[in-house]
Amino acid sequence: MKLSKSVTGVVGTGLAVVMLTGACGATDNKENAPTSEAAPKSYADEPAELVIFGAVGNTEEVWNERFGTALKMKFPKYKFTYIQGSAKNTLQSNIAAGQTIDLIHDSLGNMRANIIDNGFQYDLSTLMKTHQIDTSRFEMAVFDALSDKGKLYGFPLHDGGLVMYYNKDIFDKFGVDYPKNGMKWDEAIALGKRLTRFEDGIQYLGLGVSINHMLTMNPYSLPFVDETGGKAAVNTDAFRKLISKSILEPTEANGYRQYLTSVNKTIINDNFMKDKNLAMFVMNFYLQLQPDFNTFNWGIASLPVFSDLPGVGSQPYPNGLFITSTSKFKDHGMEVLKYLVSDDFQMQLSRKGFIPVVKTKAVRDAFAQDTTFKDKQIVEALYTNRPAAPMARSVNEGLVLSPLGANLAKVIMSQMDLNTALRQTEEQGNKALEEAVRK
Length: 439
Fold this sequence. Notes:
Layout: E1 10-11, E2 16-18, E3 48-54, H1 60-74, E4 78-84, H2 91-96, E5 103-107, H3 111-116, H4 125-130, H5 140-144, E6 147-148, E7 151-152, E8 154-158, E9 162-167, H6 168-174, H7 185-195, E10 197-199, E11 202-209, H8 211-216, E12 225-226, E13 231-232, H9 237-248, H10 256-263, H11 269-273, E14 278-284, E15 298-302, E16 319-323, H12 330-340, H13 343-351, H14 361-365, H15 378-383, H16 398-412, H17 418-438
Parallel strand pairs: 3-4, 3-5, 11-14
Antiparallel strand pairs: 1-2, 5-16, 6-7, 8-16, 9-14, 9-15, 10-11, 12-13
Keywords: Cell membrane, Lipoprotein, Membrane, Palmitate, Signal
Organism: Paenibacillus oceani
Protein name: Extracellular solute-binding protein
């Protein structure tokens, strides 16, 4: 089934959020598109007061630079009030104070805790129908990430995902060819072994992986909690395979684990950005926004892929904007969401170096053109792989992820074997999950 440009439902790669009649058999050709459907009513010129809570924690200056100023220009009759979330000014404290909230800017990881558990979730299917949202433009895996049990609660503003950064200076020092897009894990690991060496008093490490990021965006879409039984779901052959290949094998190069044991820590951002002894680093995109990236010659390649998952990258990890169930301006909120995922605005974000959520080629090709890293061939690295399907997320997944990360660090330090790490994580996770239920 193919969706026409006039279809207003959302059908994703793994979630069918809503399907509307008349979609089947349609094409993207204008001559085949329905012509009898009236244009949706616009609320853009009607007055509205929209309070936006920034759960992500961006300052108002950052919010305005990325989104707010453009929204005020687009909707001059809307009054926007932005509230910055922080440790002292939480969403819960604002709810308790009776603060009106119409839109919430939040990350995927906090969607369950902040949106759903607070009762702010609002299924967008009706609004998408009346506003005739064109879903054929979207990267649907990214939209599916903001769905829960088949209901879409927000629109992603820009995407994230795992990539492989590399330090060209290290490759040049040792006369090794740079990594290529589309590499398999075995190829990247072999390349890493060539670059793991001790020279000039420095222990160079070939390939490092941010453990938590690899786990939370894993290409196999493995969840940490089995929502059916509420138990930890990590002591499985699937997790064992994921961890063995992408997290443990890169550290088996001669001298690698000995170095980590000597400094008593696993790979962190500083190894790549500041210490500059790490040749390749698998990490969430946007690390290059750190000022330390200006101090060395870096490159970027696509996330290595598993042999049984050819062409599949990491899961999407977008920031989104959610219309709350309590808002009195839901149609106006949808006008805001529509604009933020329009080609015009997505082009602005793309040029600034934020991964767009639309498939429009011109928008993607303009990526990072207004940045200092416009010549880094990032577009190829970002789009060599297709996104993995979003996994089923639990509000309590951190109760399993935390001990898993700690136990895997012990495996890397040769203090524990993987089977023991997974078994203990299961036990620790289940105990924490049981305590969370009792609270």
